[in-house]
Known about the structure:
Elements lengths: L7 H4 L2 H25 L9 E3 L4 H9 L17 H11 L10 E6 L5 E7 L11 E6 L9 H12 L3 E6 L21 H13 L4 E7 L1 H12 L7 E7 L5 H7 L7 H18 L1 H4 L9 H9 L3 H7 L10 H8 L12 E6 L11 H9 L3 E6 L20 H36 L2
Parallel strand pairs: 4-5, 4-6, 6-7, 7-8, 8-9
Antiparallel strand pairs: 1-9, 2-3, 3-5
Helix pairs in contact: 3-15
Amino acid sequence: MAIPEIEVGAIAPEMPAMFDGMKLAAVATILYVIVRCLNLKSPTASPDLTYQDTPLNRFLLKSCSLLTREYIPPLLWGKSGHLQTALYGKMGRVNSPHPHGQRKYLAMQDGATATFDLFEPLADHPTGDDVTMVICPGIGNHSEKHYIRTFVDHSQKQGYRCAVLNHLGALPNIELTSPRMFTYGCTWEFAAMVGYIRRTFPQTQLIVVGFSLGGNIVCKFLGENRANQEGVLCCVSVCQGYSALRAQETFLQWDHCRRFYNFLMTDNMKKIILSHRRILFSGSSDKVTDADMSRLFTATSLNQIDDSIMRKFHGYSSLKEYYEKESCVHYIHNVDVPLLLVNSADDPLVHESLLTIPRTLAEKKPNVIFALTLHGGHLGFFEGAVLVPQPLTWMDKVIVSYANAICQWEKEKATCQGGNASEGESSEDKP
Length: 431
């Protein structure tokens, strides 16, 4: 049987062309994925602001021009909320400084020991006044985190004293002294720190700052009791979710990889809890059972940890009650001092449905400004030209700029009131 001859010359020229086409298709696919994942086609814009037209808000937006100017993230990766969040979480700030402070220990009524770090200003404040920033970090964070160190260093150089709460149980080298650690909305330790600052520096004025979970705590603290607002010039909250009850379902969804972030945060919380298991689950504590411990080991979401462990530190009967009582959404309307609420539209942790809370608040209350950036991720807000971000973030600069504007407003208001009083006295003395 004759074997047919294969015309090699007729097929061979077509093969390289076919391979070239496959290579081009592969390159095009990769580029498409990169463009989509990095969100490169997204525009840059100034923050979307919600506020009432009042003299104070006009002054603040004029003085704090960063809120009205275009926020420009690094070109190649800054428009990805995931990369902004990852860089904040894993790499921290660029060339993070190491501010030197003193660690303070405060005994609580239930036997717990609250700790915070106190940093003195490195320059005179622009107004000449004594002003202290009381700062509450994010979940499981403390004064040694990169983003906190960078913000503190920047604030010190602008003339602010800084007091940074270390969440109960968050510092790896500090042992707990009672069977309780920090929770989503417990304000006890923050209140103790603020009380210390007020007693030690009676002349100081306070700027309250909260990041993520810390934003929930500080807004709840101010709204719990109006006396907590005495001596407070303003409050700034960045990237918080406002309502744990509303957020619990969205945090279990896979869109924007929230379920994955939930798992990572759950794993970190497990490590913190288990590092203190001796005091948390000793014989002196009857709040947590062996079954609760088993559920802790198998937990894959923060909801499961909150239900089996965290709510029991304060005796809540259910997860719903815990989230209801611990969320600032039920207290924030009581805050009357100027309030700046900052969130990012591409924050992978905070669902867009939660942002109706600060937007509605800003529409109803004249003391509130809600700023929503198009990019920034969760506590990212990096700035930079192409690839390498700047050491200071947009978030760092906005908080200090807003605080400066508030202090200037108070200074000018006091001067005007003093001048009017003097004029009144002199007119009465005239014959």
